[in-house]
């Protein structure tokens, strides 16, 4: 395989040894390496039981790794940042998710690319649309911008 471009979603809502969640996401971007572009940070409400707001971003990362190796690298970084297995949707120092890659789709044990739930998550789609608005979901054929518009259309208005 040659060089691939990956879409990596980042999120944090707990202080770490780097400081604030914003600084933690910046440190995670440095740890990932190969970052060719990153979205602005987006503050979002927590999903599930956590009451702390999240800071989210999406990065475009170049790598010669296959998707399973990239996922393993992201999980190693999470552990190095102090992420421990726990409650789903709970507070976390860092969350790194492999959202997509330039190779289209991938399905294997423990990994499906594109990420199966990214199309419903504004906290992923808004930063993705900011950094790669014309990226196309290989499953639906829709651009990041179109996927964000669909999610926004479904959101209840207050």
Automatic annotation (TrEMBL):
InterPro entries per the UniProt record, alphabetical: Hppk, Hppk_sf
Pathway: Cofactor biosynthesis; tetrahydrofolate biosynthesis; 2-amino-4-hydroxy-6-hydroxymethyl-7,8-dihydropteridine diphosphate from 7,8-dihydroneopterin triphosphate: step 4/4
Transmembrane intervals: none
Domain 7,8-dihydro-6-hydroxymethylpterin-pyrophosphokinase, first and last residues per copy: 88-99
The protein's Enzyme Commission number: 2.7.6.3
GO BP field: folic acid biosynthetic process; tetrahydrofolate biosynthetic process
Gene Ontology molecular function, alphabetical: 2-amino-4-hydroxy-6-hydroxymethyldihydropteridine diphosphokinase activity; ATP binding; kinase activity
Transferase in keyword set: yes
Gene3D superfamilies named among the record's database cross-references: 7,8-Dihydro-6-hydroxymethylpterin-pyrophosphokinase HPPK
Kinase found in the keyword field: yes
Keywords: ATP-binding, Folate biosynthesis, Kinase, Nucleotide-binding, Transferase
Function: Catalyzes the transfer of pyrophosphate from adenosine triphosphate (ATP) to 6-hydroxymethyl-7,8-dihydropterin, an enzymatic step in folate biosynthesis pathway.
Family annotation (NCBIfam families): folK
Family according to the record: Belongs to the HPPK family.
UniProt protein name: 2-amino-4-hydroxy-6-hydroxymethyldihydropteridine pyrophosphokinase
Record organism: Sphingomonas lenta
Source organism phylogeny: Bacteria, Pseudomonadati, Pseudomonadota, Alphaproteobacteria, Sphingomonadales
Primary gene name: folK
